[in-house]
């Protein structure tokens, strides 16, 4: 038995892992919302890391200021060090103070001033804090400009640190009503701006914007007249606003940082990017060259795996930033590498036209990159791999073990997104080191840190690395002239010639569905006049013919299984028609009505000769249909029939349209089950039952918004290319099957799943069944002898995962069903169906459109609760025995009184005469 490693080894490993996790977080986290996480979670996680590292590794915590971390975390470290100055060891005080001062000078002025003002809010007013504030303000190159642009910050800091401000700065800040003129031109223009409109346009833009809004100055006039004094960053930021106001705001992209140019390029419409392709390409190349001049990096043969999946679109606070970082990294590597190739998750002919779309499949481009035999593979992704999950790490592990045991090719994962639940950028797996990244131009810095993330470098080497970075930072600022700033620092400064500036209703609402009369009569009458081909046979089971299931995406307790269609056709298209008022009363004819929550309808367009549908999307949906009764029912949307053919004009493309109410078509059939009164007037039944039957028949369901995590799961779901449907599981229970005919239709209708209704058991499952497990497929490395073997193993993993998910949907897929044809439209048949009611199995009802060859073109199902199944089975038993209570009780092997109690317990007590029911309840008490 080998001897146990010394305790010091374990301690050093833990310390190294702590520091690497913290520095990685400081590279990526900005406290802003990410695609998969809120800003609140980001702040809580990064604050915990700061407190932990500050309390345990204070010296290294201070030296992290020089590690190339982002501005957000530099400011946080500076504030935390100043706020806890009493805890600084005596031998570290001088270095710590110098590092804080140097870091503040490198921050953009607005962030540095905001950080120093936080000291006041935290009531930190020790001698060192006051000295840092005094030295920072004294070292600013233009105090008058700071007093105007950052007036509130400078004033608060002057009061807090008891500063004597030079020249006219004090009177300007503390005498707002002063009438005497100032000698400083900018201060005088700021004073005049209180009453002179012309003076507004000579002030920094952020100040001018506030004054212009208060004085009613038009936005276009402000942009036009303030343009000469705008910084390049402001010009870039205001391009869209200038376009709206028809103002020509010239911008020099060649002076902007790499990531900012990438963000600007991605913000343009595709047509504009195509027209300005050469200009944008040249600007990105120049920005990459400038970044390399500041931080040189010489690389050999480099391949980049770049994530352009839907999650790369970022959040509302960091819009398109992950994709912009990937684009910037691609240009930087192209400039730094001897040989370079980019492999995007979805191939694109031109990087300038790249967009965030599709699922995260990193394994396929990683295999393509490895086949090119590079020296280094750099993967730029947020780490949320889902096609399939963990595949890239498995590919890297097997590649290392079987095909590259000498580690000729290095693989590094660059992650621009902070995962608050893991306190670090999300890793792809233990076989691929992960480092965070805020801006693409910082890539050389994080690549130098990657060896520590890999875990091979000891703690002593990490300490020496941070010490060298700290010494370099202090030396750089020791050489800088007083009052100046480092050339190339990412902060807003002075430009030459002027100052610089830097229907859904409710939540867990119950819905009642009321049905009166027989179902589907009007729809069947409408079918008689249609031009028909041979009708497809009624469904005997719901089959996913023409569809292929693939690996699921999991969010909390929700699992979404994509259904892909390899060869979609264009002769049937589906669009949504939204209703302003979701409460609907549906007239089904012959005095019958169905009342429920109907947020939208689906409009189906088709052709009978297989040619593409001429119009789809909004054009297909058309205007909302109305009914004359709507004038009589305020607040209620009155619709005519569950399924209605809409004939507009003589053009077949206009006439072949069908409006249907999704889910409600099937639910109406369920509510109409044995709805009519008993044919024999048995004495045990009430007069109401004899005359009106089950009227009103009511069932209750839940809004999709009531199910925890469903809305977020739909928001973050990455739609596959070719996806035409989804299997929706909640708490590992099949909630719904949704299929449409065309991928574009599914993309438009995906979010409507939140507007569907669901049975009540799913609420309990979502709350108490815990998070669904992510299926991770392990590749047997013994079977791998080449990259082709890895590709085959990846294909098998996807096929096995899809087959497993279809098997778990056996409650409706492949199970015998009873179907009813509702409408025939050319080669298509609209049917509604219900599974056999078996209390031991999952039971579903739904509607489907089937092509004459059996291909499923549309389907939507509803999971029945156990109570709904019991009620339906009870009605079936009663109707099957002619509503004879004695015969029904004998068939169920219970007494007549027990049957009456059961009828009352299921909510049908109103069917039984009052005296008969009371006597039965008394006898079975």
UniProtKB/TrEMBL annotation:
Residues 542-826 form the ARG and Rhodanese-Phosphatase-superfamily-associated domain. It comes from the Bacteria. Residues 477-497 have a biased composition (Basic residues). Residues 507-520 have a biased composition (Gly residues). Residues 477-523 are annotated as: Disordered. InterPro entries: ARPP-2. Coiled coil: none annotated. This is ARG and Rhodanese-Phosphatase-superfamily-associated domain-containing protein. It comes from Sorangium cellulosum.
